[in-house]
């Protein structure tokens, strides 16, 4: 997928500040990203002029202003995730000891909206905004199970099937078969579908008038033979926490 360089650069700067948590100067940013100083200056100057960056102390580097947070809060308030969704993700991660998330469809991907990472030393780590191929993952299969056959057919017709792991489905027919199996079973399973040695169990979450899916994932060796028990724990948590 083609990326617009200027937008990509802006997002790189924002993610950099989120990661390092301290001001950075023009030279530091230019060297970190390998950008010409003139290009770095243009990005920084634009963000300063729009009120998104400032200098906390003179000549001590730039840092994001609260305007980012204000905009994010306004956007979230317009179409918020219900509190029950965040609670469900947290409870599942604590009860099962694995990373859990709620995702929504986004074109050819499933995008994670809320994530609770496992505290175990060996774990799968994700964050809100992470995207995974909708055709390749248990999360994606759960989401597609909420679509009409026509919607799924249109989506899969445009998919570029790539082998990410031993369990990746590589055709529309194979994806449809796994969706049918998941619907019949009541939950969807992944075993090295997208990330090698990663296991996952997903369930469709058709609530609040939205297409959502909840997933619990972790190292495959901890999921082998446990998928039915994990799915049952997920079902109980959904029935207890989420309002239909």
SSE blueprint:
Layout: H1 5-20, H2 26-33, H3 37-49, E1 53-54, E2 63-64, H4 67-78, H5 83-96, E3 99-106, E4 109-116, E5 131-133, H6 138-144, H7 149-157, H8 172-185, E6 188-191, E7 198-205, E8 212-219, H9 220-223, H10 227-241
Antiparallel strand pairs: 1-2, 3-4, 3-8, 4-5, 6-7, 7-8
Helix pairs in contact: 2-3, 5-10
Describe this structure in words.
With 244 residues, this protein is α+β, with helices and mostly antiparallel strands. 46% of the residues lie in helices and 18% in strands. The strands form 2 sheets. The chain has a 6-stranded antiparallel beta sheet, with helices on both faces. A two-stranded antiparallel ribbon has the order 1-2.
Count the helices. How many? 10
Distance between the termini: 36 Å
Radius of gyration: 21 Å
Domain module count = 2
Structural class: alpha+beta
Strand content: 15-25%
CATH third-tier fold name of the largest domain: Beta-Lactamase
- Biggest sheet: strands, sense, closure? 6 strands, antiparallel
Give me the side-by-side strand order of the main sheet. Answer: 5-4-3-8-7-6
Name given to the CATH architecture of the largest domain? 2-Layer Sandwich
Q: Which spans have pLDDT < 50 for at least 5 consecutive residues?
A: none
Within CATH, the superfamily of the largest domain carries the name GAF domain
What is the CATH class name of the largest domain?
A: Alpha Beta
**Percent of residues in helical segments?**
40-55%
Outline, from the CA principal axes? elongated
Beta strand count = 8
Round the mean pLDDT to the nearest integer and report it.
90
Helix-strand topology string:
HHHEEHHEEEHHHEEEHH
């Amino acid at each position: 997928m083609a990326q617009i360089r200027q937008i990509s650069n802006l997002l790189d700067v924002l993610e950099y500040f989120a990661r390092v948590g301290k001001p950075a100067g023009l030279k530091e940013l230019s060297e970190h990203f390998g950008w010409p100083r003139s290009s770095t200056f243009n990005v920084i100057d634009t963000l300063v002029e729009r009120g998104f960056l400032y200098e906390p102390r003179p000549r001590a580097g730039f840092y994001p202003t609260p305007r980012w947070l204000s905009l994010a809060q306004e956007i979230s308030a317009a179409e918020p995730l219900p509190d029950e969704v965040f609670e469900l993700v947290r409870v599942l991660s604590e009860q099962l000891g694995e990373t859990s998330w709620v995702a929504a469809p986004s074109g050819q991907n499933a995008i994670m909206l809320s994530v609770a990472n496992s505290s175990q030393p060996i774990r799968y780590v994700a964050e809100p905004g992470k995207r995974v191929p909708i055709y390749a993952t248990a999360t994606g299969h759960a989401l597609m199970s909420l679509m009409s056959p026509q919607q799924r057919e249109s989506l899969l017709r445009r998919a570029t099937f790539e082998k990410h792991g031993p369990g990746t489905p590589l055709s529309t027919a194979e994806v449809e078969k796994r969706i049918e199996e998941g619907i019949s079973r009541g939950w969807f399973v992944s075993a090295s579908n997208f990330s090698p040695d990663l296991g996952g169990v997903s369930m469709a979450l058709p609530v609040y008038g939205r297409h959502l899916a909840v997933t619990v994932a972790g190292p495959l060796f901890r999921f082998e033979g446990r998928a039915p028990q994990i799915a049952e724990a997920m079902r109980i948590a959904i029935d207890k926490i989420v309002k239909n």
